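WARN retry 2 of 3 for item q-0093 after timeout on previous attempt; input resubmitted unchanged.
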Amino acid sequence: QIHLVESGGGSVRPGGSLRLSCAVSGVKFSSACMGWFRQRPGEERDGLATLDSDGSSSVTDSVKGRFTISKDNAENTLYLQIDNLRPEDTATYYCAAEPRTTASKIIACWVPVWDDDFGYWGQGTQVTVSS
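OK item q-0093 returned
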């Protein structure tokens, strides 16, 4: 059973940084496509970044340069580093996983990605950016 638990959210001032974590169990990074999404108030959930089973990663253009996806294989933890936070980054942030199998929902683990590409989700962590 794949289980994802996000943490690291909080309230920060504009210009600050946060590192979000996603503790992953039930699947190894070498066997899955991993993703970070966010849902801003009143909006649909948007894909931000991906990490494929071969270690390749992508970040959507709108946050490129400020958001970085990474992993710790030993801890089986996925990270999203967010720098130079802006008020418009206020959202609930989710990690997602989709095993890389013949029955995988996703073909290309590369942005843009959508909710339907992933079968496993965490509960989300809230990030609020305000002065």
